[in-house]
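Hi R.,

As promised on Friday, here is the backbone we talked about, encoded as structure tokens. Could you run it through your design pipeline when you get a chance and send me back a sequence?
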């Protein structure tokens, strides 16, 4: 089994005003969101840590989790950046807050960074449909 860090860029099927998604506005100053706070949000970035037999299996776990998340609106993944890693090299915070990295699947989820616009240089493979 191998462990992977997978960073995903996800676009909503349509723009959403913050009040449609959250009870309280997102704090733009701490990086939870970027762009113009008065513009609708169009997507988010997130990172997942996964154990799998292969990179293909790891990306499948992430794609399935992100596109079937009932707490978020319909969306599609437009970019994935994947890096193989070793659990022992992660920060103590991640290691102590994670699930069991010896079991296949997602064992740690970083927060989401929402955005109201997307620059082409923010994506590794513009237009990648997952």
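Update: got your reply. Pasting your designed sequence below so it's all in one thread:
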């Amino acid at each position: 089994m191998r462990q992977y860090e997978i960073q995903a860029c996800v676009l909503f099927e349509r723009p959403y005003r913050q009040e449609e998604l959250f009870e309280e506005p997102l704090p733009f100053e701490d990086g939870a969101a970027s762009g113009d706070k008065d513009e609708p949000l169009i997507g988010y970035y997130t990172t997942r840590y996964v154990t799998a037999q292969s990179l293909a299996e790891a990306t499948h776990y992430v794609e399935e989790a992100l596109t079937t998340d009932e707490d978020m609106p319909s969306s599609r993944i437009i970019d994935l950046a994947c890096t193989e890693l070793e659990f022992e090299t992660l920060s103590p915070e991640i290691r102590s807050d994670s699930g069991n990295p010896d079991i296949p699947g997602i064992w740690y989820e970083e927060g989401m960074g929402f955005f109201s616009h997307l620059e082409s240089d923010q994506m590794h493979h513009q237009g990648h449909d997952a």
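One thing I noticed while checking it: Strands lie at 2-16, 33-34, 41-52, 75-85, 105-109, 113-115.

Thanks again,
M.
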